[in-house]
């Protein structure tokens, strides 16, 4: 093991000290169950043939079929996908979902592809991994730079291959193809419910709480809007091109409208940049003059109450952790803080609410979609959001309780909680002590 996966495994090692699980369970969790590397040939619009490297990892299926997103990003590699599948295993267990962890991806810059090329790549990926997935084996979903349209292409391709209708093979689909209401907002809403559960325990009132959000994609932008509507002072947001900051608070609703209306970026995902909004006076509140342009690195070190990394992994490391000034960090991205940085933040007294709890709303509503697909009965938006809120609050309370009782970090508490559930399922199949005891 090396790189990101080695770092991810360190969190498990800390939890093992406090979780009552067998050595056999730990042994099983050291490595993924299955890993697949594929080559995806794509005929480009100019007639050229290009090949792309794709991956799919099924980490553990003890508690049910594996579940996890598919990302299109230039930096996708096996180490990253394996780490994300590892995190998904524990995330599903924290929320008590009947799933294990999986993940997939393709090493590609999707912004450089036409929509025709993007469709061919999406269908080609499913051609390559079709035997590896299925509604009862491994269920995919959108992730970084993939969306409902891409999931629809992928589900359609899988159904073409197997000659049947299997809407449950992929979640995050368009509503017209069996998607669930509330899926687009699920990660952000789940994060919001977690924040609303924890922040009152720490004495934070919305109107007196400042927030900075790194990452203004689907999760980050929707969460920013939800926090703004709830009265929080969102003072900084950023996307891949950089960010904007104003100590008096940003007018998030207008920034969202302007970003969505601007088509400066060549992308079918999230056009425009938040940095392009600073010259528009309609975006300013009465107290504001003009937002200040900042880098993503500068956003992370702002003096705010709440910091929300909602972009990619490894944003806070041992190199910049000492400069972090936020009091509380909610990990909306997967793995934005390295284990070494965790130790530094802990010494500084900064509370970190881990990704496997904070951003679990997405996989929770994906579970709801899978259930609806299998039942052929679909829920209202109100019902989906109520079920999500109830589950997120209940499991957040349990993680908080474990952390308080054992006097450990919320991250370690979440892993203890998940590991206990996974270990019980593994041990139910029989252990060394069970079999040897039966022969005595």
Low-confidence stretches: 263-272, 283-288
- Give the SSE string: HHEEEHEHEHHEHEEHEHEEHEHHHHH
The overall pLDDT, averaged over residues, is: 90
The number of distinct β-strands equals 12
Rg (C-alpha, Å): 22 Å
**Count of helical regions:** 15
Q: Between the first and last Cα atoms, what is the distance in angstroms?
A: 39 Å
**Approximate strand percentage:** 15-25%
Identify the strand order in the major beta sheet: 9-8-7-6-10-11-12
| Helix content estimate | 40-55%
Structural class designation: alpha/beta
Let me know the largest β-sheet.
7 strands, mixed
What's the shape?
A: globular
Task: Write a structural description.
There is one protein chain. The protein is an alpha/beta fold and 440 residues long. It has 15 helices and twelve strands. The protein has helices spanning 3-16, 23-28, 78-94, 115-129, 148-162, 186-198, 218-229, 252-261, 296-300, 339-347, 355-358, 361-375, 381-406, 410-427, 432-438, and strands at 34-43, 49-60, 66-73, 100-107, 138-142, 210-214, 233-239, 242-245, 292-294, 306-309, 328-330, 351-353. The strands form two sheets. It has a seven-stranded mixed beta sheet with strand order 9-8-7-6-10-11-12. Strands 1-2-4-3-5 form a five-stranded mixed beta sheet. Helix 6 (186-198) packs across helix 12 (361-375). The longest helix is centred in the last third of the chain and has 26 residues, at 381-406. The radius of gyration is 22 Å and the shape is globular. Mean pLDDT is 90; it is low at 263-272 and 283-288.
């Amino acid at each position: 093991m090396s790189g990101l996966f080695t770092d991810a495994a360190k969190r498990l090692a800390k939890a093992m000290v406090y979780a009552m699980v067998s050595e056999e369970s730990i042994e099983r969790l050291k490595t993924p169950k299955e890993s697949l590397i594929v080559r995806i040939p794509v005929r480009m619009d100019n007639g050229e043939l290009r090949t792309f490297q794709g991956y799919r990892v099924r980490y553990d299926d003890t508690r049910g079929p594996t579940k996890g997103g598919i990302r299109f990003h230039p930096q996708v590699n096996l180490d990253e996908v394996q780490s994300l599948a590892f995190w998904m295993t524990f995330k599903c267990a924290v929320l008590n979902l009947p799933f294990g962890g999986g993940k997939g991806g393709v090493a590609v810059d999707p912004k450089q592809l036409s929509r025709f090329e993007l469709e061919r790549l999406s269908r080609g990926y499913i051609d390559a991994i079709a035997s590896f997935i299925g509604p009862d084996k491994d269920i995919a979903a959108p992730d970084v730079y993939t969306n409902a349209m891409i999931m629809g292409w992928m589900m359609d391709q899988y159904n073409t291959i197997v000659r049947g209708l299997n809407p449950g093979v992929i979640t995050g689909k368009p509503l017209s193809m069996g998607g669930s209401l509330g899926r687009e907002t699920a990660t952000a809403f789940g994060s919001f419910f977690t924040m609303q559960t924890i922040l009152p325990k720490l004495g934070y009132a919305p109107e007196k709480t400042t927030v900075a959000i790194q990452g203004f994609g689907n999760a980050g932008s929707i969460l920013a809007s939800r926090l703004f509507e709830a009265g929080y002072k969102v003072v900084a947001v950023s996307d891949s091109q950089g960010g904007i900051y104003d100590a008096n608070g940003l007018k998030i609703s207008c920034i969202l409208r302007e970003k969505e209306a601007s088509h400066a970026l060549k992308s079918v995902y999230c056009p425009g940049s938040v940095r392009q909004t600073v010259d528009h006076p309609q975006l300013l509140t009465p107290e504001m003059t003009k937002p200040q342009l900042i880098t993503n690195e500068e956003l992370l070190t702002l003096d705010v109450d709440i910091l929300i990394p909602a972009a990619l992994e490894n944003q806070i490391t041992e190199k910049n952790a000492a400069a972090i000034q936020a009091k509380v960090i909610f990990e909306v991205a997967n793995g934005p803080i390295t284990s070494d940085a965790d130790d530094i933040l802990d010494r500084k007294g900064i509370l970190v609410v881990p990704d496997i709890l904070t951003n679990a709303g997405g996989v929770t509503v994906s579970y709801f979609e899978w259930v609806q697909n299998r039942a052929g009965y679909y829920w209202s938006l109100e019902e989906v959001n109520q079920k999500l809120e109830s589950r997120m609050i209940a499991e957040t309370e349990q993680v908080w309780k474990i952390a308080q009782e054992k006097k450990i970090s919320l991250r370690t508490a979440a892993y203890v909680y998940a590991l206990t559930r996974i270990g019980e399922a593994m041990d139910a199949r029989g252990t060394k002590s069970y079999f040897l005891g039966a022969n005595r």
